[in-house]
Specification:
Rossmann fold; alpha/beta; 21% strand
Length: 202
Amino acid sequence: MKLNYNKAEFTAAYGKFSQLPPPERIEIAFAGHSNVGKSTLINKIFNRKNLARVSSVPGKTATINFYGLENIYFVDLPGYGYAKVAKSEKERWADLIEGYLSSDRDIRLVFMLVDSRHAPTKDDVQMINYLIDTEMPFVLVLTKIDKLSKSEREKRMEAFRTEISCFDDMHVIPFSSQTFEGVEELRQIIEDIADDDEETDE
């Protein structure tokens, strides 16, 4: 199915897991640390400047944001791990993320974003291990890859092998909002999921 990405629309934002409406469509989620570039990635996939609000202030996405396109909801989870918020706020984000991922919603895939320039944070490792343990299908997206030189990139890729368990077994997509590296591959995965759902419905 060739999706018309320009037709994606912001649907709703929810501050608590209990506010989420019953699942109506298949869902693809985006998870990652504050300021890892989730909103930027979403905008690039949908070829839109401001579909997802990009903020230079980490921890800005404090809600679960839903975007609709065809038979899919794209779900932007709050960025985790931002130090400068109250403990109660951190707990609310954790409840939102965990509540969502452990629910019986039809989550087909999680795009797990990690900043390619640095070792994954403790929270990143915890989230990746959670996805592995719960057997949730996910793709590891390494953001801001254009900020690395060729040799730095090779070094980081080598380092990820020791920093992330099972790294070599993962589907890994280096992504750049500047050069568009990875965008077509991400779209292909989304279209494959949309196709699978159509076939299941027939």
